[in-house]
Amino acid sequence: MMKDKKYLLIPGPTPVPPRVVEAMSRPIIGHRSAEFQTVMERVTGKLKKVFQTENHVFIQGSSGTGALEAAVVNLVNTGDKVLALSCGKFGERFAELARIYGGEVDFVDFGWGYDIDLNVVKKKLEADPAIKVVFATQNETSTGIQNDIEGLGKLVAQHDAVLVVDAVSGLAAIDLKTDEWHVDVVVSGSQKAFMLPPGLAFISVSEKAWKKIEQNTTPKYYFDLLKAKKNIAKWNTTYTTPVSMVFGLEAALDMILEEGLENVFARHKLLAKATRAAIQGLGLELLAPDECASMAVTAVQAPMVVDADTLRKVLLRDYGVTFAGGQDAMKGKIFRIAHMGYADKFDVITAIAALEMALGKVGYKAELGAGVREAQMVFVGGEHA
Amino acid sequence: MMKDKKYLLIPGPTPVPPRVVEAMSRPIIGHRSAEFQTVMERVTGKLKKVFQTENHVFIQGSSGTGALEAAVVNLVNTGDKVLALSCGKFGERFAELARIYGGEVDFVDFGWGYDIDLNVVKKKLEADPAIKVVFATQNETSTGIQNDIEGLGKLVAQHDAVLVVDAVSGLAAIDLKTDEWHVDVVVSGSQKAFMLPPGLAFISVSEKAWKKIEQNTTPKYYFDLLKAKKNIAKWNTTYTTPVSMVFGLEAALDMILEEGLENVFARHKLLAKATRAAIQGLGLELLAPDECASMAVTAVQAPMVVDADTLRKVLLRDYGVTFAGGQDAMKGKIFRIAHMGYADKFDVITAIAALEMALGKVGYKAELGAGVREAQMVFVGGEHA
């Protein structure tokens, strides 16, 4: 096997398109130059289109977790009541962050493999008008579940609380109409559907959220959004921004906007559908039910004969294909195939073909080509539909 | 004039060598893969050589300011006495951070254009044994002053306090023997002498500092060093690390170590000497006295006939050359020429030649070539010495 041909199919970091790599290779310019200010203005404008918002979207040098922290330290004061809606690892992370910064957290655990139940949220909000912030995850990467953010947004909008959505792994893959759905704070990151390396995070903030941020007294510095807001007109950035990454971001945003947001979402939906059909064609169990299955990543339960991580090792060793494993309690029990960002039909075909061959090696009886055929049928149907 | 030929001579971000750009363009790999763990171990080993330490050096996705914040939130508890030694903007930033996180800050301002007076520090430390942390800046970028970190390290080592040094713009340009000089925490960033784009920060931590960090209760998450320490063996990283930047970092470290640390420092010293000789040859005033002049960046006072920022505009407009301006109170009064990182003799020659021509345009009488000749004399002498 060639040594360099590798297939990275994990839910972030994801492969970077050549056009983005090229943009990131441009000569460095000063982050306080008029030239970079123009770039930042232009990029922010494009970013707002992808966020589907008129709110300002901040660009921050950090991982997605750094942006979750920014949301928390700007909104949560010691003793504030917050509602943390969790379906997996990243829902738990939001709750942990809120707790660390003094929030009185009502942690609602819907369970790994389940989505947020809006009826529960409705009752919680009605029962306690003091709830100040509601934290939710758009696409729970750990389980391949996506939540009904539209429904959640409409619910929270009726209350004083602001809705903060972790869209790190879902934005630009799954529709999220920030303004129309009343999502006050949307957080995302560069290394998922945005097709960039890790290193940038994005945060949009609504007027309703600014009112709470203005009253916040939690100590902060690097993640201070009010300070960042004051610097928009002057520099569009508070500290030294990763300029190369911003060049790459513009190329990625151009690719997304040229394809068209609706087409980007449709492509992700098609890839998810094909992946799920293929998995079922191989007789394997999907973790997420159809109605809340992620369009960005598919979680699959390991067959009885083999541990998921053993299967992943065979895939990497013999075929150069990397799937993600399960996290925490799901470790060894599931594997996850990403189809987000710079992903197309033949990435799914590659994933399924490799999986079929690896399954054979670990003693699971699967007809070679059976999963691939199911995926092809979706593609043929999907294209003609 | 060609549109693409630009000369960036600011103290960060600095130009990135082609070898580093190439490394950063490699295909993305998973940040939790065995392959990346190997890369991180190798890179950390090389980073330790540049830090001249046996302490672990953490790699964090943020600007340098994010790493200053990491030092503060891990070391400073509410009410802790800290000594903040300041010679300019970045000394002030450290103090501000310590204040925000509840430190009882003794802010010692040596003034913009001056270095730290060790006698003052000695008296302060002797007068108050409760001082827990001493913050200092190795290379004060805002004024082009470098401090005697060796002397400071020996002083602080005699006390219970730990010494935290902001070496963001100085490390890998100016000698800093972390272990030998007893510097407990050294903070640096990617976009200065490390020759990378902005986006990574580095922090080394001594045993003496870990003892204080273990007792720290300041809320933190993204910048939590104790958590990062626990993750060294497992993944070498807590959150998603900018993998492309780490590839670039290895290439940059290889360049530094192949050249040899002593040679890297000597090169910076030579470039600084040539720049200073040229400036004086043009009859302009240097901000920093010889004995504490930075080897990484030279601050020059604007001549009476022109505001520094007007001069900088002419340099950029007519010659594509970018110098840095003065910050805060120094705005318009000084300009700064960087000679750090991927910088060699002809970057200095370019800077001075452009300056001579721009000075003529704004009405300052300078003989063309007079500064260039002074720099050349240093280079000829320097090479033969």
TrEMBL record, chains A, B:
GO terms under biological process: glycine biosynthetic process, by transamination of glyoxylate
Domain Aminotransferase class V: 7-328
Keyword Transferase: yes
Similarity comment text for this entry: Belongs to the class-V pyridoxal-phosphate-dependent aminotransferase family.
Lineage top rank: taxon: Bacteria
GO-annotated molecular function: alanine-glyoxylate transaminase activity; L-serine-pyruvate transaminase activity
Keyword hit for DNA repair: no
Pfam families attached to this UniProt entry: Aminotran_5 (PF00266)
Residues recorded as bearing N6-(pyridoxal phosphate)lysine in the entry: 192
Cofactor annotation: pyridoxal 5'-phosphate
InterPro entries assigned: Aminotrans_V_dom, Aminotrans_V_PyrdxlP_BS, PyrdxlP-dep_Trfase, PyrdxlP-dep_Trfase_major, PyrdxlP-dep_Trfase_small, SP_NH2Trfase/AEP_transaminase
Keyword field: Aminotransferase, Pyridoxal phosphate, Transferase
Residues the record lists as binding substrate: 336
Transmembrane segments: none
Annotated protein name in UniProt: L-aspartate aminotransferase apoenzyme /phosphoserine aminotransferase apoenzyme
